[in-house]
Amino acid sequence: MKDTIQLTSSAPSDDLALFIESFWMIENPSDKDEELSTFPDGGIDLYFFHSAQYPLHVSLVGLETGASMGSMPSHSRLLGVRLKILAAEYLLDMTVADIINDRITLNNGFAGINQDDLFSFDTFCEKLSCYFNSQLTASIDPRKKIMSELIYRTKGAITVTEIAKSANWSSRQINRYFNKWLGLALKSYCDILRFRNSFDTLKMGELFPEEGFNDQSHYIKLIKKYSHLTPKQLAQDENDRFVQLYSED
Fold first, then answer.
1. Where are the transmembrane segments (predicted)?
2. What is the second-level CATH architecture of the domain 6-135?
């Protein structure tokens, strides 16, 4: 990873773990802008960005299905929370299906976060945790809980039929839920999770994971689909741009 880019992450409390993957922060304290590439990771992200030009900018980012490139301005920081699939319904109370591969700007002051909070990662995490706990007013459908836990426990290496049987929820209803709240089918989401979880293998320089894929050709095809690169190119990261390969999550 570029020496100029600093990464920090924190796990949520147990009572929010069903809905939140992590809180995170990326900083560029240097005097020059840095190019970064990101890939689909199965997360819905809330962004809180600070720079000289934008003291506080808040946005909600839907699921991504392709690689993207952006710039991290000098002396800027981006704090965020990566949300899991049930967060759309239970924490945000809004569908993100219409912002797949897109984002919307939220009002400054969302969740009670102000500019000063962006300079204390602990305070940021605490305030957002309190806010999200206050949003949990509805009881959780046990079928959705089982579905979500299976998807993340298996890192996407599970079939729709297996989930439907375990959750006692039909495949048609599950896919209807995914399309309504997230904007894509369950199988596509599981493919993205398998792609995301192959990063751990690539970090170690191994070009084929031991779990989650039946054969190497299938794995290479999936890597190319979501990154437009081969596993070898992704692992080499010649320009130190692939921020997710160095995430602490």
1. none
2. Sandwich (2.60)
Say how far apart CA 184 and CA 192 lie, in whole Å.
11
Q: Please, are residues 240 and 2 in contact by the beta-carbon 8 Å criterion? A: yes
Angle of helix 186-197 relative to helix 216-227, nearest 10 degrees, comes to 100
Interval 147-165: pLDDT, tens: 999 999 999 999 999 999 9
> Looking at the domain 142-246, which fold is it?
Arc Repressor Mutant, subunit A (1.10.10)
Condensed to tens digits (0 to 9), the pLDDT of residues 4-28 reads 788 899 999 999 999 999 999 999 9
Q: Render pLDDT for 72-89 as a digit per residue (tens, 0 to 9).
A: 999 999 999 999 999 999
HEC-encoded secondary structure of the chain? CCCCCEEEEECCCHHHCCCEEEEEEEEECCCCCEEEEECCCCCEEEEEEECCCCCCEEEEECCCCCCEEEEECCCEEEEEEEECCCHHHHHHCCCCHHHCCCEEEECCCHHHCCHHHHHCHHHHHHHHHHHHHHHCCCCCCHHHHHHHHHHHHCCCCCCHHHHHHHHCCCHHHHHHHHHHHCCCCHHHHHHHHHHHHCHHHHHCCCCCCCCCCCCHHHHHHHHHHHHCCCHHHHHHCCCCCEHHHHCCC
Integer Cα distance of 130 and 19 in angstroms: 14
Any idea where the domains of the chain sit in the sequence? 6-135, 142-246
Q: How crowded is the C-beta side of 139, counted as CA atoms within 13 Å?
A: 3
pTM of the model: 0.88
How many residues would you count in the chain? 249
Taking Cα atoms as reference points, which of 1, 2, 9 lies closest to residue 78?
A: 9
